[in-house]
Amino acid sequence: MSTPTVLVYKGSEPLARAAAARVVTRLVEVQAAKGSASVVLTGGGVGTAVLRAVAEGTARSAVDWSRVDFWWGDERFLPTGDPERNETGAREALLDRVPADPARVHAMPAADGPDGDDPERAAERYAAELRRAARPEDHGPVPSFDLCLLGVGPDSHVASLFPGMPALYETERTVVAVRGAPKPPPTRISLTLPAIQAAQQVWVLASGAEKARAVRLALLESGPVQVPAAGARGRSQTAFLLDEEAARFLPRELSRPASP
Ligand SMILES: O=C1O[C@H](COP(=O)(O)O)[C@@H](O)[C@H](O)[C@H]1O
């Protein structure tokens, strides 16, 4: 697993714009190298702002959106179209605004989906979809995603992996149902850390002072059971993209500005 790089931007809007530019660059480079690209999307404030900035940036036309596979790191287990679903936010911010191939938009099942109100079965269904998409060169039950975007909560959760949850000990399953999440809604579906860590690149996005403690813990020697964001690591690259407020508790040597 890779050692995190930290990039600090002046505020939440510069952070979203810079992250969006990096997303476009990453997708273009991967498509140039191997034809298609895969990205894991996140919900949350800054995660959705980044998707909106991608949609609104002129560079978006450099990406062949029909050759991008979209996956999700977690989902709130609610009916299709519910405004609280991460999928709904991602569709409004980006997916409805670019020519994505519907067959490559791999939304997590909804509570009115084929498994009804059964998040465990829905999690198994998503795990099976990931397994089918994995190729021999991925060496595992999920694709080695080209990019995995993650938000982080003030409590240091990533995806829907909250501190102390049994799912944080998971070594086999790639997707789990989450019940009793401390942040509403209580029922969710989430990738596990082994699935996240299969990604080539993992980027953690954090904006605002309420994230500063979680960011510090995630970068300075914490374990992922107590601090799930400490487990957010990619195979070849891990980047923490922060605004100044989210970086305020980092030591000076870690919190250099991304640009002068
Ligand atoms: O509930 C969730 O929260 C996190 C962080 O959201 P934020 O609004 O505090 O940035 C998000 O990454 C995750 O996908 C989501 O389900």
TrEMBL record:
<comment type="function">
    <text>Hydrolysis of 6-phosphogluconolactone to 6-phosphogluconate.</text>
</comment>
<dbReference type="InterPro" id="IPR039104">
    <property type="entry name" value="6PGL"/>
</dbReference>
<comment type="similarity">
    <text>Belongs to the glucosamine/galactosamine-6-phosphate isomerase family. 6-phosphogluconolactonase subfamily.</text>
</comment>
<dbReference type="InterPro" id="IPR005900">
    <property type="entry name" value="6-phosphogluconolactonase_DevB"/>
</dbReference>
<keyword id="KW-0378">Hydrolase</keyword>
<dbReference type="GO" id="GO:0017057">
    <property type="term" value="F:6-phosphogluconolactonase activity"/>
</dbReference>
<dbReference type="InterPro" id="IPR006148">
    <property type="entry name" value="Glc/Gal-6P_isomerase"/>
</dbReference>
<dbReference type="InterPro" id="IPR037171">
    <property type="entry name" value="NagB/RpiA_transferase-like"/>
</dbReference>
<dbReference type="GO" id="GO:0005975">
    <property type="term" value="P:carbohydrate metabolic process"/>
</dbReference>
<protein>
    <recommendedName>
        <fullName>6-phosphogluconolactonase</fullName>
        <ecNumber>3.1.1.31</ecNumber>
    </recommendedName>
</protein>
<dbReference type="GO" id="GO:0006098">
    <property type="term" value="P:pentose-phosphate shunt"/>
</dbReference>
<feature type="domain" description="Glucosamine/galactosamine-6-phosphate isomerase">
    <location>
        <begin position="13"/>
        <end position="237"/>
    </location>
</feature>
<dbReference type="Pfam" id="PF01182">
    <property type="entry name" value="Glucosamine_iso"/>
</dbReference>
<comment type="pathway">
    <text>Carbohydrate degradation; pentose phosphate pathway; D-ribulose 5-phosphate from D-glucose 6-phosphate (oxidative stage): step 2/3.</text>
</comment>
